[in-house]
Write a structure and sequence with these properties.
The chain is an alpha+beta fold and 213 residues long. It contains 4 helices and 9 strands.
């Protein structure tokens, strides 16, 4: 009788111990990104998850994105997941969970924040710089063309003025030579000053136009 009770109690204790072992909470796995959790666009990164138990089943992926989740089994105590050609949209929080054959639930790691730099931001900055350069070249070209046309116009007007002035001088000298002498004698000072001022202003304008062209 006593032997039967002893065997019953022993079996009960073993069963309860086995249930406690199954329901025991697993420790959190370790989760990291190699070579770093901050990477540039188009680069690669390796997510590594490991636990203190062997022959475990692991799940790795991006938080709130079931399409990126991968389930891996390993005879050792760790697994690796390679992410290639990363883009800014791949940035975010990643997780790692695992379970053993003796456990019923999954143990989840701390979330890993993956940062992907470059990409659209750099392209936008480059495009903005190119647009500014194009605008500057366009404005400079238009201004140069305007100054060139203005200089040509001044030179043309100066040439016309010189031709007309020379022709008028020759005609006046032949037709009104006596009258001119009388006029020069009566108003020598005023005529001389007016002619000199007009001729000086015209020549100065023409010389500036030639120099700019």
């Amino acid at each position: 009788m006593m032997l039967t009770e002893f065997l019953s109690l022993l079996c009960l204790g073993l069963c309860l111990g086995y249930e406690d072992e199954k329901n025991e909470r697993l420790p959190k796995p370790f989760f990291s990104a190699l070579p770093s959790s901050v990477v540039e666009s188009k680069s690669n990164v390796t997510l590594k998850c490991w636990s203190t138990f062997q022959n475990a089943t692991f799940r790795l992926g991006k938080l709130n994105n079931t399409g990126s989740e991968e389930q891996l089994k390993s005879a050792e105590n760790n697994v690796e997941l390679l992410l290639t050609d990363l883009e800014p949209k791949d940035a975010g929080k990643y997780f790692c969970t695992y379970k053993t054959t003796a456990s019923q639930g999954w143990a989840e790691s701390e979330h890993l924040q993956l940062v992907v730099t470059g990409g659209d931001e750099n392209l936008g900055t480059l495009s903005s710089k190119q647009d500014s350069r194009i605008i500057f070249i366009t404005v400079f070209s238009c201004l140069s063309m305007f100054l060139s046309f203005f200089s040509i116009f001044l030179i043309y007007r100066c040439v016309q003025y010189d031709s007309a002035d020379g022709e008028s001088t020759r005609r006046s000298s032949h037709s009104n030579f006596p009258n001119q002498e009388a006029t020069d004698l009566s108003k020598p000072e005023r005529t001389s000053l007016s002619a000199e001022d007009s001729e000086g202003n015209t020549r100065a304008l023409c010389e500036a136009a030639y120099a700019s062209y």
